[in-house]
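seq/struct pair 1
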Amino acid sequence: MKDTGATLFKRLQDWTLQWVGTPYATPSLFAVAFAEASFFPIPPDILLIVMALAIPSKAFRYALVCCAGSVLGGCLGYVIGYEMFERVGKPIINFYDLQKEFDYVSTQFHENAFAAIAIAGFTPIPYKLFTIAAGVCKIKFSTLVLASILSRGTRFMAEGALIYFFGERVKTFIEKYFNMLSIAFVVLLILGYILITSFSSQ
């Protein structure tokens, strides 16, 4: 039982190694990052990390692809909020049951939009919530783009750098603690949800 985590990670890595050499790998990473910033629920970090571990020499390239996809996806989220909130944006917010969080984020935008978006790039709180809200609140488009590049770029490049410089050691650590890391990732998502919910209820 104690090797279950390592086995799961090994299977995931083996599958990725077969897939990462195809012409579809990098576009798929871009697509996941793009979609997550506007409507998709799963963060691109997991795919980025596994792909970078499969080919550490391409870690920075994958991080840049992830950043580009996320920033451009954030632009789509902005357009959804700005032009199509009632038809598209609101159903997305309701689907993820994020109305209270959306109201709180909108309030934060009126205080400091750049800081709100920049901080959002490092949290487990759904980034799509911030990008759609930015459009609804008519935040300057340049503010969204610059803050997204700073926050998402730093986040993904840090992950890429960690794997590029400490690839084998990071791989060993993930293999050993895969189950714990998976649980920790879910806990972070839940804590992020609870945190922003508690703030929004104040």
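seq/struct pair 2
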Amino acid sequence: MRLYNNLINEIKSILCNSKQLDISNVSLNVSNKNSVIFLSDTAYELGGSQKPCVSSLAVSSDMSFSNSVYLLGNDLNEIKADSPFGKFVFIQVEDFPDEQDTFNKIKELESLRYHLSVDGFMTRASALNMREQIRVSKKIVKSGVTFSDYGNALLKEYLKFSYVKSAEIYFVTDFDDFEKLNSLAKKISQTTSALNHIFDNVMFDCSTCNLKEICDEVDGLKELHLKNVKK
């Protein structure tokens, strides 16, 4: 799967000033049930108060990643109020011969953010507008937990999938170019939506499809569609 490669490279170039975090040994409890954090117990919300917020996940079969966590902006212990927030997850997966199988794996990886819960963090994610707001508890901030700890907990969960070979997670709390990053995240979302149409065997006139622009732009997407139409 190479459809996302150019988009991944563009995002990484924008985030090139991110610092690589030392992955700590702090153990955060992880469960499949999202925790509930009341406002009275909340230190702040990442992406709250209508601050810029974007979240995206993209995969590649031939780009390897460093199994690292990166941060651009303030860390959790430096944030004092609701903050802008971005999270970008890049994952190297096995090169499955069947594109449908790869797409199913993408959806499985995407679903992780909707049901995975890290102790002290309450996630409210929306695929429709690519936002992932995270409520951070006072207790967690007071204990000194950082993005290194939080990112490490997430990274370990992604690497548990047998078909995941490597991954990187980028956190952003200070945007120099939010609109560009948001636009690229939208293209990733549109690419995944186009794949959904293709593998659902949706037959449509390309000239009238609202996904035509992304199919024309992403190398290999239109070819994949035509290949599946002929099956």
